[in-house]
Design goal:
The chain is an alpha+beta fold. It has one domain: Diaminopimelate Epimerase, Chain A, domain 1 (Roll). The protein contains three helices and five strands; from the N terminus they run H-E-E-H-E-E-H-E. A five-stranded mixed sheet has the order 1-2-3-4-5. Helix 2 links the parallel strand 2 and strand 3. The termini are far apart.
Length: 126
């Protein structure tokens, strides 16, 4: 019984340690010049498409956090993920996405449903 308990605890620990975390990223630009629409630029070193999609999803959730985005009441958001650059604010575009948070955002983004992030472009180096 003791061996079984140790084996079970080891398995639980292994599963807990193997959970994926979102790749590191930095929000470098927040443009709210369009009423109720936010454009966000993010930089990351990641070249993995699934990680980039996870970053876009995490940023879309972060936009809902009023303490992060100054309490903006957003209809929609455009999230663009770039590679970092030593000479510019951001490098080339890796992933472009958009989300409508409310029905008013559907016409703005051209999406068919709210609360679903759509990736419109992925550009990764091979």
């Amino acid at each position: 019984m003791k061996r079984f308990t140790i084996l079970l605890l080891s398995l639980i620990l292994l599963v807990a340690c193997s959970e994926d975390e979102t790749a590191e990223y930095e929000i470098i630009e927040k443009d709210n010049s369009r009423e109720n629409v936010l454009s966000v630029r993010v930089v990351t070193e990641s070249q993995d498409e699934e990680e980039l999609k996870e970053i876009a999803s995490e940023v879309s959730e972060e936009i809902r956090d009023t303490s992060t985005f100054d309490g903006l009441n957003m209809f929609a958001a455009y999230i663009r993920i770039h590679e970092p650059s030593d000479t510019e604010k951001f490098g080339s575009l890796k992933l472009d996405s958009k989300i409508a948070y409310r029905d008013e955002g559907l016409a703005i983004t051209g999406l068919d449903e709210t609360e679903t992030i759509e990736v419109t472009k992925v550009n990764l180096e091979e």
